[in-house]
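[User] Once you have settled down, look closely at the record that follows, and write a paragraph about the fold.
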Amino acid sequence: MEQFNNKIEKYYIKKVDADKKSIYCHHDLMGELFVTTHKHDKAQLLYAEGDVVFVTTETKTYFLPARHLIWLPAGVEHSIHPKSENVMMRNLYFPVEKDEDAFYQNEGIYPVNNLLLQMMLFTNQWNGDLKKGSPNFVIAKAIKAILPQICLSNLPLELPQPKDVRLSKILRHVENNLGETILFSEVAHEFGYSERSLYRLFQKDLGMSFIQYYTIRRILKAIELLLDRKLSVKEVAQEVGYSSVPTFSNTFFKILGQRPSDYLNGENVLRKK
């Protein structure tokens, strides 16, 4: 374990932040199934291919699907947990500049459009420090510069971490029963709450209602199942408690901006061959 932690420290601190003015680039198969909590002085753009990546900060667990990116501002403590060791992660670490756009101050997950996809593809052979003034530095900086203009939909693909132990038990119940239709009134009754008091607990602790949490969790599970490519869209809908495929499809579209069938048919164009 000590050897593993030293490896993580060497990578994230000694390499990423060694040159304060460079843009640091690292593209590779994940290989490791967990990167412990750490932070760096540079902001991070992380793009994933192949499977789901869980990124956990102090307050939230982000769910990064394939063909999406997450932006993490400088100094944000986070851990990274890919669902499988076959995840391809592409990272660009950017030094903080004066008077930056407000976009760069906030964590967020965004779909990757064709323009950004092609730009990320162009970085395929890069690794290590991109020195200021070099052609690759200019291109990488252009990638950062266009983010506020093309990343207009910060997708709600994160779930807050509960602080209340009582709420943790309820969320475990939800997690263990995603294939069933879970009614708020039944949850309140089972755990000894009035509907009004449980509603307040969700709002106070998580900042969202039960139905918001439940809906997002079902869709996140659906994304995992779609990426596994073992079930049809209808079967995935049933696995996350939807008896109606159109209802499932509409809910999926509202959150991700595309239909489950379109997501299922997406190509992992940036995976290394």
Observations:
- The first strand starts at residue 23 and ends at 29.
